[in-house]
Amino acid sequence: MGRKNKVSLKISSPKSEAGGLAAVLSAAEHIFTEAGIVEGTRTLLKVNQFDGYDCPGCAWPDPDEGRSVVEFCENGAKAVAEEATTARCDEAFFARHSVEEMRLWDDYEIGKSGRITRPFIRREGATHYEPVEWSEAFSYIGKKLRSLAPGEAVFYTSGRTSNEAAFLYQLFVRMYGTNNLPDCSNMCHESSGVALSETLGIGKGSVKLDDFYCTELIIIMGQNPGSNHPRMLSALQQAKKNGAKIITINPLPEAGLIAFRHPQHPADLIGKATTITDLWLPVKVNEDVSLLKAILKILLQKEEQNPGTVIDKEFINTHTTGYDKLVKDLSRYDLHSLIARSGVTPEKVYEAAEWIAQKKKIIVCWAMGLTQHKNAVDNIREIVNLLLLKGSIGKPGAGTCPVRGHSNVQGDRTMGIWENPKPEFLDSLKRVFGFEPPRKPGYNTVETIKAMAEGKVKVFFAMGGNFLSATPDTDFTSKAMEKCDLTVHVSTKLNRSHLHTGKTGIILPCLGRTETDVQASGVQFVTVENSTGVVHKSQGGKTPASPHLLSEPKIIAELAKATLTDSSIDWDGLVSNYDNIRNLIEQTIPGFENYNERVRKPGGFYLPNAAREGKFRTTDSLAHFTLNALPDYHVADDEFLLMTIRSHDQYNTTIYGMHDRYRGIYNGRNVVFVNTDDMKKHGLQQGDRVDLVSRYDGIERRARGFVVVPYQIPRQNIAAYFPEANAVVPHNHAARGSHTPISKSVVVRLEKNA
Ligand SMILES: Nc1nc2c(c(=O)[nH]1)N[C@H]1C(S)=C(S)[C@@H](COP(=O)(O)OP(=O)(O)OC[C@H]3O[C@@H](n4cnc5c(=O)[nH]c(N)nc54)[C@H](O)[C@@H]3O)O[C@H]1N2
Ligand SMILES: Nc1nc2c(c(=O)[nH]1)N[C@H]1C(S)=C(S)[C@@H](COP(=O)(O)OP(=O)(O)OC[C@H]3O[C@@H](n4cnc5c(=O)[nH]c(N)nc54)[C@H](O)[C@@H]3O)O[C@H]1N2
Ligand SMILES: [Mo]
C-alpha cells in the first residue's frame, strides 16, 4: 500500500461556488481511473435513467419527467466509480495481507482494495481470511443462529439495500424471532422521524420535487448539498429562476450554498454562477433552537402589530393544537438573549424573520446538522412550529424536507427495517405470513454497541454498511464487536468492520446497484424509495465484478433456508422472480397497490402522504405545536463544540479521495477547522498538530494528530471529518427520543502535540 506521506497536506482558500467544469473533470477522473474509459462512460450513461439504475449516491429525487441524457452529478459519479472499480479483493489479496496488517491501513487504503470476489471466512484463531464455499458459509451461520436465543443475534442494515431485499430480510429476522434490526437511520434521520411522527403524524417529509419550483422561500438548515446532494443544487437553481428566495442556516459558508454552475449547462460553465443563498445565518453549532425561537418571537410581534398578515390563524384554528401554549411559552424567553446565544447578528435575524413574515409558501430542508445533537428532536419540532405558524404545510410549494442520506434509507424503513416497528405493521405480517412476530422492541444502533460490549450479543450480521467506522467510539466499538462469536458482513467492498471480527468472521460478497442480477426467471430489477416518497425501479446492466457474487435477496433466502429449517415460506420461489416478493409487499404494506404494474411505469409512483394533503394522522388528527427547551450543554472556556462532517471526497466511511476541494483542503483528512480568534487565544498556528480530546463520564477519548486549519467558523466551534474523529464521540451520549449519537456536538479540548 504505502500511499501515506507521498504528498503532503495543502491548505488553500475555500471556494465560493460549486459545480462547473471542475466538477466535470473530477467526476471523469474518478470514474476513468477506477473503471477505465469505455466501461466508465457506459456505466455513467445509465445512472438515474428510467430504464437504468438508481444512483447509489444519495436519496435526492429525480425529475418526474424530462430527464437530461446524463442525469448525474460529480459525487454520484464517484459513487458509481467506487463500485465499478477494476481492483479486486480475491484469494491472493487475502493470502497476502493478514487482518492485523490491514487494520493499520486508513479507510481510504482499505476501500481502494477493490471488490470482494467470493465468500471469505476468518476461522477462529486465524490470522488471515480464507475462501469458503457459499454452502458452507450458510450452513455455518444457520447452525450458529439456531443455537442461540433469538435476542442474542443482531441484524444491521445500511440504506442501500433495495425494498425487495429489505422486506425479505426483516421477514426472515422476525420469523427467527427478534426485532434486533438496528440500521444506519438510527445515526441519521431518526430524530426527524421521531419529531415528524409526533407532530405531523408521518415520519417522512411532505414535499415533492415540484414544490421547489413553485415555492417562495426555501430555508436550508444543517445541510451541505454541494457535496452530499449535488443534484439538489439544480433544483435550487431552478427555484431561484422561478423567483424563490433562499435562507441558509449553517455555521459554515458551504461553497455549494453560496453559488452554483450547472455542470451540464454550457452557458453556466462560462457565464455567471447562480447565487444560491440570499441570506446566510451563521448559527453557532447546536443553537438552532435559540435562533428559531427568536424568529418565532419576532413573527408573533409582527402579527400583533399587523394582525392577520403574518401568521395563518385559519390554518392554526382548523388543523393544529397547542398554539396558545406555544405563545405563552415563548413569552418566557428574552429575545435579545436568544439572538445572542444563536451567534447570528440581530440584523440578520430580523431580516430572516421579515422574509418569513412576508411569504406564505415555505419549504424547510435539513440534514445531519440538525439531527445529531442531544436535543436533535427539539430542533426539528421547532421547525415544525415555524411551518405550522405560517400554515406552510399541506399545500403546493410548502412543507418539510428532511433530505435523506442513503439512496434507499427511507424505503428500508417503509419495508420494516426498524427495531421498534409499529404494531399495525406486525399485525400485517401476522395476517399475511401466519406467524406471531416478536413484539418486544429490539436493539437500536447504540444499544447494540452496549449489548455487544456486555456480551449479550453472540452474532452480529450486517446487510451492507460499515458499522464500526460509522458508529461512535471506534476503540470501544471494535472491542465490542470482537466479543461476538460470529460477525457476518454482506458487502461489496472491504471495510474496517471486516477487520474487527468476532471469534469467527465471514464476508458474503454481493452484487452492487450497477450490476445485472439474473435469477431463475431471468434478469431482475429492484425498487427503491427516494426522499420524497417516490418508489421506482433500479436495474443494473454491468457484468458483475465476479461470477461468484449473489444478490442480496438471494443471500437472504439462502440464509433463511439454512436457519429456519421448518419455514413455511417458499424462499426459492420468492427469489426466482422478484415480482413475487413485490406481491407480498403489496399484501403487507399499505400504499403498494398494483405494485408490479405501477413500478414499471417510467418514474414509478408516489406513496400516500397525508401531511402532503394537509391531513395529520396523529392521535387527534391535528398537527401539534410543541414546547422545546433551549439546548443544555456546557462548554468550558478551554473547550470547543466539535461537529464531525463529511468532506467532498467521501461517502460516509468510503473515502473516494483525499481532497475537500470546496473547503480548500488537498491531500489530507486529519484536519481540524478552527476560528482564527480562537487560534490566537489558544496560541495555535496554521499547520500545528493537535489531538482532539473528549471527556464524558470521566472517560478520556482521543483522536490523534489533526492539523489546525484557520476557517470561517463561529467561536468555540470546530469541525473535523468523520470517521477519523469518531474516536472522540461517546457511544452512550445520544439524542433524547431518537438515540442518535451526538456526532455534531461533541465537547472536546485541543491538545497541542509536542
Ligand atoms: N457525496 C456524498 N454524498 C452523501 C454522503 C456522503 O458522505 N458523501 N452521505 C449521505 C448520507 S448517509 C447523509 S445522511 C447525507 C448527509 O448530508 P449532510 O447532512 O449535508 O452531511 P454533513 O457533512 O454531516 O453536513 C452537515 C452540515 O451541517 C452543518 N452543521 C453542523 N452542525 C450544525 C448545527 O448545529 N446547526 C446547523 N444549522 N448546521 C450544522 C455543517 O456545517 C454541514 O454543512 O448525505 C448523503 N449523501
Ligand atoms: N461522527 C459521525 N458519524 C456518523 C455520521 C456523522 O455525520 N458523523 N453520519 C452517520 C450517518 S448519517 C450514516 S447514514 C452512517 C452510515 O453508516 P453505514 O451505512 O453503515 O456506512 P457506509 O459508509 O455508508 O457503508 C459503506 C459500506 O457499504 C458496503 N456497500 C456499498 N454498497 C453496497 C451494496 O449495494 N450492498 C451491500 N450489501 N453493501 C454495500 C460497502 O462494503 C461499504 O464499505 O454513518 C453515521 N456516522
Ligand atoms: Mo445518513
Topology:
Elements: E1 10-11, E2 18-19, H1 20-35, H2 37-45, H3 74-84, E3 88-89, H4 91-96, H5 99-103, H6 107-111, E4 115-116, E5 120-122, E6 130-131, H7 134-146, E7 153-157, H8 163-176, H9 190-200, H10 209-212, E8 217-221, H11 225-228, H12 230-241, E9 245-249, H13 255-258, E10 259-261, H14 266-270, E11 274-275, E12 279-281, H15 288-305, H16 313-319, E13 320-321, H17 323-330, H18 335-342, H19 346-358, E14 362-366, H20 368-371, H21 376-389, E15 399-402, H22 409-414, H23 423-433, H24 445-453, E16 459-463, H25 467-470, H26 474-482, E17 486-491, E18 504-509, E19 517-519, E20 522-524, E21 526-529, E22 534-538, H27 552-563, H28 571-576, H29 578-588, H30 595-598, E23 605-606, E24 623-624, E25 640-645, E26 650-651, E27 654-655, E28 665-666, E29 671-674, H31 676-681, E30 689-696, E31 699-710, E32 717-721, E33 746-752
Parallel strand pairs: 2-10, 3-4, 7-16, 8-9, 8-14, 9-12, 13-24, 14-15, 16-17, 17-18, 25-32, 29-31
Antiparallel strand pairs: 1-28, 5-6, 5-18, 10-11, 19-20, 21-22, 22-23, 25-33, 26-27, 29-32, 30-31, 30-33
One ligand MGD binds at residues 158-160, 184, 187-188, 368, 372, 405-406, 463-467, 470, 490-493, 495, 510, 512-513, 552, 644, 652-654, 722, 726, 729, 743.
